[in-house]
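User: Second chain of the day. Same drill as before.
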Amino acid sequence: MPRDVRSRPPAGSGLSGSALDPRPGDHTQADNLCATKPDSSICYQQARAVVDAMERDMSTTLATKSDLDVLRVATKSDLDALRVATKSDLDALRVATKSDLDAQRVATKSDLDAQRMATKSEIDALRVATKSDMTILQKDFEAKYLLLRQEFESTRTAFRQDIVASRNQIIIWLGSALVVASSS
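Assistant: Same format as last time:
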């Protein structure tokens, strides 16, 4: 004999209440479904099976408030862990970068010191070479100046001798011209 769809299931049948409406003594989803179709010949177990299937679908498809709370807590926990990991990574990167920059600074300073010493050594060598070249140039200049002076003195002496000889010749020529003029 079919049961009245509006009646409650027997006690201990495990069909009372629902996951969506777990309060004891309240109407179940099956009761609500049966109440909407009072004329139907659907029995309570069939209505209960439909409601259970709907509740299973909703529990796997839709998120409940507690599911969202769990997800929020998990997301917050993940974000906190990510924040800590990122901070740790940034701190490690800052330390590594500082260490690299310090090492680069020391290497650059060492390179600059070596370059400065090499440049100073080259300048000192150039100074010595220039001084030596200047000394050689000065001696060469003095030798050439002395030679030029000697040549100049020699030329001047020869020029004086030529002037004296020319003067003597002019005196002799003028004297001869006077003698020839007085004899005539």
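The CA atoms of residues 95 and 174 lie 112 Å apart.

User: Great, on to the next one.
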